[in-house]
Amino acid sequence: MIIPLFDLVRRRTVLFDGAIGTELMARGLGLGVPPEVWNAEKPDLVREVHAAYFEAGADIVSTNSFGGTPLKLAAHGLENRAFALNRTAARLAREAAPSGRFVAGSLGPTGKFLEPQGPATEAELAAAYAEQARALVEGGVDVLIIETQYDLREALAALRGVQSVSPLPVFVTMTFGATPRGYFTIMGDPAARAAAELEQAGAAAVGANCTLTSEQMVGCVRVLRAATTLPVIAQANAGQPVQLPDGGFGYSQSIEEYVRHVPDIVAAGAGFVGGCCGTNPAHIRAMARIIHRKEQT
Amino acid sequence: MTKSDIYTKMSEAIVAGDRQAARALAEEAVRSGFDLLEVVEQGYMPGIQRVGALWEQGEYFLPELITSAEAMKSAMAVLNPELNRREGANRAGARVVIGTVEGDIHDIGKNLVASMLQAGGFEVTDLGVDVKLERFIEAADAAGAGLICLSALLTTTMSNQRRFLDLLKERGLRNKYKVLVGGAPASRKWAEEIGADGFAENAVAAVKVAKALAGLA
Predict the structure, then answer these.
(1) What is the pLDDT of residues B49-67, one digit of tens each?
(2) Rounded Cα gap, residues A171 and A198, in angstroms
(3) Which of A150, A173, A257, B5 is most exposed by smallest CB count within 10 Å?
(4) Per-residue confidence (pLDDT) for residue B93, from 0 to 100
(5) Would you say the ipTM is above 0.85?
(6) Alpha-carbon torsion angle A50, A56, A60, A65, nearest 10
(7) Taking the CA atoms of chain A, what radius of gyration do you get in angstroms?
């Protein structure tokens, strides 16, 4: 199951999905309701979102479990349901996956700061990720993806936690901002060091997601590519959130602008490409066309 | 040591995030009968402003910002009671109520703004996350705060910033409070459109805007 995914990324660019939360909101997920709850309450709609991404051409989708560590769910008093919600998240994506496509179990940040900036310890964070990973693995994911990390110490703790309960490959993406001095997380971790340390710690692929536009992502991928031998993952935002004339919200990059930089992201060395905030199945469909066109040439 | 040497040390303690030094220097200033407003303005404030500048230049990151804000807080914990005793009611304008709006549980940005406001000399009531809009008004009333800060990280929850301003208008309280909005999806344009008094791109800018709104800048 796993080998084909790594075979595939050696042969061509592998396409991830785009945003999930906003797709669920478009289907009625209420304000303040953690999306993971819908794994239990609206499984058909969660499956429908995954199916839409597969249909658009995604090779691999992420489970609806981004906020699913027990630590994060505790903010909603749902920590006791963490295992079940995560296992179901994995099952729903699995059920939506056509044969030969893949499911990545998503683990997002706990939102807790580590000592000395905050109260959390690395052992505590590792345990929370381990618990979530156990459930995702039981639900049938192919790989695990620790996403949107802004603190390298938390990312490494998460990686250790996940590795302690599963032999499956673990992907790690971190969120970097573009500064005049290069790409850094908000905690000040430079992209190159993050990639090198995550590789050293046994990650199977490393990358960047969120915050950066597809245009800014190109430079970040170049830095990551130079720092690691692992496959590089790139999931850019569709620009910055902006208010639309109708009073709703959108993102500053149009689909055309967003995908225009995809060939550069690939040329810079990304093996896995997908979307983040502001992207939807239409973005993934447009990216699939670009990737497959490239494959034929 | 001259007064100006001490002010330099205060500033350095903040830039270095040295909580103990920041506190010890504040205690010394109180003991020596210094003008404490001057101590804040010429000793500590330049330090936190330097930290803000280093952050804007990409030299400092969150850990440094948090550590420096903590150092500032430990100095202000010594100075504030003294200042309140000596200055009394003059300082009432510098009270702030802050929270993340209902439906939203993101707190990193909000906490940082709260810390920086405290570091900037404001008396801050932090209501936490997922705060009912009513609660902001109750808390501002109870604390005697003139400034209310609303944080939202999601495009889907920032509409509550607009609803809050509508609520103030409905209650006839719009002129009683200054309202500052922030969070990843917020923008100056958004603040203008919903009729907020101010918008800040980040925690460092929030202090500047808050001071301007409170008439302290």
Answers:
(1) 899 889 888 899 989 988 9
(2) 9
(3) B5
(4) 53
(5) no
(6) -30
(7) 18
CA B131 to chain centre: 18
- What are the structure tokens assigned to A184, written together? 């850094």
Residues in B lying within 8 Å of A, measured between beta carbons? 57-64, 66-67, 102-108, 129-130, 155-158, 184-185, 187, 189-190, 193
DSSP-assigned states of every residue in B133-152: HHHHHHHHHHHT-SEEEEE-
Q: What is the pTM of this model?
A: 0.88
| Residue of B59, B105, B111 to mutate for A, most A C-beta atoms under 10 A | B105
Cα-based angle B42, B44, B46 (whole degrees, multiple of 5): 65
In chain A, which residues have pLDDT < 50?
Answer: 1
User: A58 and A292 in contact (C-beta within 8 Å)?
Assistant: no
Give the minimum alpha-carbon distance from A111 to chain B in angstroms, rounded to a whole number: 7
**Which DSSP letter does residue B44 get?**
I
Under an 8 Å CB criterion, which residues of A touch B? 22, 25, 31-32, 75-76, 111, 113, 116-117, 179-181, 184-188, 241-243, 249
Q: Give the nearest partner residue to A32 out of B103, B108, B155, using CB atoms.
A: B103
Range of A51-60, B69-78, B198-207 with top mean pLDDT: A51-60
Closest CB from B57, B61, B105 relative to A187: B61
Query: Using CA atoms, how far apart are residues B192 and A154, in angstroms rounded to an integer?
Result: 38
Contact assignment for B156 to A116 by CB distance below 8 Å: no
A206-240 tens-digit pLDDT: 999 999 999 999 999 999 999 999 999 999 999 98
Burial of A98 (0-12, 13-18, 19+ CB in 10 A): exposed
Both structure tokens of A79: 């920590």
